[in-house]
From TrEMBL:
4-amino-2-methyl-5-(diphosphooxymethyl)pyrimidine binds at residues 40-44, 72, 110, 140. Its cofactor is Mg(2+). It catalyses: 2-[(2R,5Z)-2-carboxy-4-methylthiazol-5(2H)-ylidene]ethyl phosphate + 4-amino-2-methyl-5-(diphosphooxymethyl)pyrimidine + 2 H(+) = thiamine phosphate + CO2 + diphosphate; 2-(2-carboxy-4-methylthiazol-5-yl)ethyl phosphate + 4-amino-2-methyl-5-(diphosphooxymethyl)pyrimidine + 2 H(+) = thiamine phosphate + CO2 + diphosphate; 4-methyl-5-(2-phosphooxyethyl)-thiazole + 4-amino-2-methyl-5-(diphosphooxymethyl)pyrimidine + H(+) = thiamine phosphate + diphosphate. One of its GO terms (molecular function) is magnesium ion binding. Mg(2+) binds at residues 73, 91. Keywords: Magnesium, Metal-binding, Thiamine biosynthesis, Transferase. Pathway: Cofactor biosynthesis; thiamine diphosphate biosynthesis; thiamine phosphate from 4-amino-2-methyl-5-diphosphomethylpyrimidine and 4-methyl-5-(2-phosphoethyl)-thiazole: step 1/1. GO terms for biological process: thiamine biosynthetic process; thiamine diphosphate biosynthetic process. It comes from Phytopseudomonas argentinensis. InterPro entries: Aldolase_TIM (IPR013785), ThiamineP_synth_sf (IPR036206), ThiamineP_synth_TenI (IPR022998), TMP_synthase (IPR034291). This is Thiamine-phosphate synthase.
Length: 213
C-alpha cells in the first residue's frame, strides 16, 4: 500500500497532442520541478515501441524527483516498468491488476460521479479513487459531470485518497481541495503552456494550494 501522505498534491497527466514536438520530457520535468507528486503517462496510441521508450524516460524523471509514475490503461506496461496504473471502468479488472502489480503499486480507479463505484474500487484493491469531471474539460469534453459536494460525501464514505479531475485550473481548484480532494489531476491548465518555465510556475501554484489546506 502507498505510504500515507504520498498521495497528496498535484497529479500531472500527459497529453500526446499538447506534448508533441519534443515537449514531453522538458514539460514533464518542469511539472515535477514545480512539485507534481504523481505523473500519469496517458497516450492512446498503439505505437508500443514509442510508448515503452517514453514511459521509461518518464520513469527515470519521476525517480529523480521522488514522484510516482502511473500508466494509464495499460497494466502490462505498468508491470514491465514496476510502476503504478490508472484504470477506467472499461479498462479491465482492478483485482487482476492488483494481483499482477503487487500490493505496493499505486493503482487508481475512475469512479465518475458514483460513490458506489468508489466503494467497489476500494473493495477490489484500489489505492485511490478519481471523480470527475468537475468543470468543462477541453481534453475530455464528453466525460460525465460531477459536482464538488460529491467530494465531501466520498471523504466521509470511502477510506481512500480522492482525486478530482476534469477542467481544473488555478482559479477553480481550491474549493475541490477544501471539499476533500487530496489530489488534483490536471492536463490542459498545466501543459497548454508556451514554455517549460510557465509549466513550472503553474505546477508551483497548484502545489501551493495544498500547503494552506
Ligand atoms: C486520475 C484520473 N482520473 C480519471 C481518468 C479517466 O480514466 P478513463 O475513464 O479510463 O479515461 P481515459 O483517461 O483512459 O481516457 C484518468 N485517466 N486519470
Ligand atoms: C482524462 C480525463 N478523465 C476525466 C474524467 O472525468 O474521468 S476528465 C479528463 C481530462 C482531464 O483533462 P483536463 O485537465 O484538460 O480537463
Ligand atoms: Mg482509461
Amino acid at each position: 500500500m502507498a505510504k500515507p501522505g504520498k498521495l497528496r498534491g498535484l497529479y500531472a497527466i500527459t497529453d500526446s497532442q499538447l506534448l508533441a514536438d519534443g515537449k514531453l520530457l522538458p514539460y514533464v520535468e518542469a511539472a515535477l520541478t514545480g512539485g507534481a507528486r504523481l505523473l500519469q503517462y496517458r497516450d492512446k496510441s498503439t505505437d508500443e515501441a514509442r510508448r515503452l521508450r517514453e514511459a521509461e524516460a518518464l520513469h527515470r524523471l519521476c525517480e529523480s524527483h521522488g514522484a510516482t509514475l502511473i500508466i494509464n490503461d495499460d497494466a502490462e506496461l505498468a508491470a514491465r516498468l514496476g510502476v503504478g496504473l490508472h484504470l477506467g471502468q472499461q479498462d479491465g479488472s482492478l483485482a487482476a491488476a492488483r494481483a499482477l502489480l503487487g500490493r505496493q503499486a499505486v493503482i487508481g480507479a475512475t469512479c465518475h460521479a458514483q460513490l458506489a463505484l468508489a466503494e467497489q474500487a476500494a473493495s477490489e484493491g484500489a489505492s485511490y479513487v478519481a471523480f470527475g469531471r468537475f468543470f468543462n474539460s477541453l481534453t475530455k469534453p464528453g466525460a460525465p459531470a460531477a459536482t464538488p459536494d460529491l467530494l465531501a460525501q466520498a471523504k466521509a464514505q470511502v477510506a481512500l485518497p480522492i482525486v478530482a479531475i476534469g477542467g481544473i485550473d488555478l482559479h477553480n481548484a481550491a474549493p475541490l481541495i477544501d471539499q476533500g480532494a487530496s489530489m488534483i489531476a490536471v492536463i490542459h491548465a498545466l501543459f497548454a503552456a508556451a514554455s517549460p518555465t510557465e509549466v513550472e510556475r503553474r505546477a508551483r501554484a497548484f502545489s501551493a494550494l495544498f500547503e494552506s489546506n
